[in-house]
Each structure stands twice: as C-alpha cells, then as structure tokens.
User: Fold these one by one.
Assistant:
Number 1:
Amino acid sequence: MISNNSSLRVGCMRIGVCLGISAALVGCTLDVPDEVQRRSSALMNGEAALHPAVGRVFGAGGCTGTVIAPDAVLTAAHCLARPRTDPSIPWEEFIAFPVYFELGDPDTELGAVEHITYSVSIHPDYDTNADRDFYIADEIDGDIAVLHFESLVSNAFVPPATEPPRVGDEITLVGFGNDGPDGPGGLSKIGFAPVAEVTDLNIISYGPLSELRARDDVAAICAGDSGGPSFITGDAGEVLVGVHSTNGAYSSGECGNETWDIRVDRYQAWIDCAVRSHVGEDCSDDKMLGAGGGGGAGSDATAAGCSIAPGNHGHSELFFLGLAVITIARRRRRRRSAKYP
C-alpha cells in the first residue's frame, strides 16, 4: 500500500526482499502536477450513460474504476504504474501518486466530484517490469488495485463477486475510454457482451470486430476503459465480476476484438483484505485466493506483497490542509479550462 503520509512503513515484496523507499517517492506524494493527464484509454458499441458507482481514474493515465465500498475503488494495477525505465530503481517509485477519482459528469448541471486517494494497494502478483507481452499472454495475472479514501466517496457501490460468471452469461461493460482506435473518449458508455471464455484468472468476451462474436451488437473495451467493471445482474442486484485489463491478448491489442477482464472472484479474498488495510495490513498469499481461484495454502507463500502504510507522524493535519488547498486550486483551474476530451 502506498499512503498519503510523510512517514511510511515498508513491508516485504513477493520475492521476499524488503525495499526502502527513497526521498523521491516520499516527495511525490506532495507533488501534485498542474495538469493530471485527462485523455482516457471509450467503450466500442456502448451507449452513452453514467453508472452511479463507476468513475474516472487519473493515475499513470486515464482509466476507469468502480466503487466497491463507501471509501474504496477497484481498478487495474497498470492504471497506477508508469513503465519501469530502470530495473535498479525500486518499483514503488514508478507508481503514480496521488491518484484522483472522479464521479459524475462535468458537463451536466450536477457536475463531477473529484476525490484524492489516501493510499493505494496493488496486488503483489502485478509486476511493473514484467517481460511479458499482454497481447500474446495466455493469461493476465494480478492486474488489480484498490484505491483508498479518507472520506465517503459514494453510497452507491457494487459488491465484488464471489463466483465467476458462466460461459454465455451476459455481462454489462462500463468504461470512459475511446469508442474506437482513433477516439473520441472521455464519456461514460455502457454496453453488453456474452462471456466467451472463463480461465483460471480471466474473463474473455468477443467484440464487434471479432469473427468469433456472438452477435453484431456486442461491446468491447478500448483505451481508457482499463480498470472499469463488468457486471452481472442477479436476483440480489449487480455484482462486479471483472476488471478490464486489456483489449486483445489474441488480437495484438486492436480495439473492438476482445475484452480481457481480471476475474474478481479469483482475487476476492485479497480485495476484502485490501479494503480493510487502510493502515497497511499485510494481505499475504494465503489471503489472496478467492472462492473461484486455484492454489491455496500450497501456492507461493513468499508472495506477501509490498505494504506501504501510514506511520506515526506529526504533520498530518498540515498535509491534508495542503491537499484541500491544492484540490480547490485544481478545480478553479478546471472551470477555466476546456472540457475534457
């Protein structure tokens, strides 16, 4: 976990090596850029509509996230991780922080509300320096993260699923990404697609450009939809079954072919732990596997993750006052600037 505090505690990474946090990481918690990147990576074949529990995430780029508890948002890990340019530098220094989450539509009368993260938790199986290629991977692992907030984000939230969907089930895809390879993006869209495959880690559906599509009106994710949800509606209402990870591990990443989601049930136990871990609980490997996952106690027991959590410090009041001033200033600048693309 990476926290919005001047004092940080570092736990052990999955390889069993404890890393220190340099002054560069501590400094970046206060270094809020003048302009956070606003270009999002939108849903193809979706209809323009807002979902009350889905908003925009601004971290390493523009993404989407889902409120899963009043003060927690689930998104994709790669939305928070910049490319690791130097393997000798601890990976924590490549995590974008703070991260912003925006609910609502700035173009409507009600407008949008922006929230600043208090801390972030990234699944320890996610590697910012992985040598794999998402577009030729058999499966995509650990691309999931929880954003934590000090105060209420929304009373409208969707619980994570404890079971996977079945092949043929219709899922609801939501995202703020582009509606094609050349855009435009930045508007919330909602679409539908049947589940085509369920692997140990992923949920796969075929989009409007895939020859394997079940019908012509299916939706698929594009740039900016990353981190967004796939929902299934049952007797008890909506549940979150997938987190958008990539738009085509079979098709070289071309928008409109496939949607690859991280299976939420596979990581349900880790998600529950991460939501509780505002103060840096160690969500170790024996807590990572949900009801639908394999592994168990016999899995790699060293995968304890890296926890960076608040410590005792004497300047938290000044810190959060500073964040409030920054937030007000940013919103004033936004009102004077052009609308998001």
Number 2:
Amino acid sequence: MLTVSVELDRVAPNRTALADRIRARSAFMPTDLTADQRAILDAAIDGEYRAESSDNAAFEELVATFRGQEAIKRDGSSGTWLVRYAGDLWLAELRYYGFADSEPPAEPPAMPDEG
C-alpha cells in the first residue's frame, strides 16, 4: 500500500505579498560594475549578450557575481536570477558553460568510513 502525505504552509496571504517576499529574498543589485560589465547588461536588456570566447574577463566576473547570489533556479551551467539594474527589476537568464562548468555541490561529498 502506498501512502502519500501533503502538508501546506501559508507563506503569504495573497499574490502581491508572495511576489514581495520573492523580490525581498532573491533580487540583488550588482555593484561596482565596470564599463564592460554594464555594456554586457545593457546588451542583454536590448535582447541578448553572447560571449564570443571563454576569455572574456568582464563576463566571467559577472558570472561570479551572479553565482554568489541566490538564484530562483540553477541547473548545471545556467540559472535564473532577479536583478535590480538601471532602475528596474529584471529576470535574468544566464548560461555560463565554459566560464563555470558546473555548480558547486550543495553539500561536500561524504567521506568514506574509516576503519
């Protein structure tokens, strides 16, 4: 016999409150951006930015900045973040294969038993 259990916890009284909670928890504003990093974000606003090689210091530094923040979703070498930039809130989808090939493990690998 299969038993399924479901528990619900109210996290917000309505959609607006839920959106506020997600923004407060997840949105971040990158600081101390170089001109090249701002150009990357501006290009992304206008459509998309593609790094032409893995030897792109400005993009690599942006990847490190994003990865240091809480993502809405991470999957291998990509993720989705809420970003405050240029006076607005943006949903940023970042694919960074070649700049950071994989996500760091959530927990360190288990150590083999001694003995």
Number 3:
Amino acid sequence: MTQHPHSNGWLSEFMTENFENSSASHRDADIALRARE
C-alpha cells in the first residue's frame, strides 16, 4: 500500500472541517432546544 504525501494532510483537514461543522450544528441544535423550552 503506497502512501501519497498529500493524503494524510487532506484527511486531517477533512476531519477537522467535519469536526468543526458538527460542533457548530450541535451548538445550533442546543440553542434551538433552549429557545423552544
């Protein structure tokens, strides 16, 4: 299995972006829940 030099950077960048997106959506959902109470 050959490793491409950019694949690791791309993967970590993708994971970071996903993590930030999911954190933001969790926060939005939290705010929506509190507003609904």
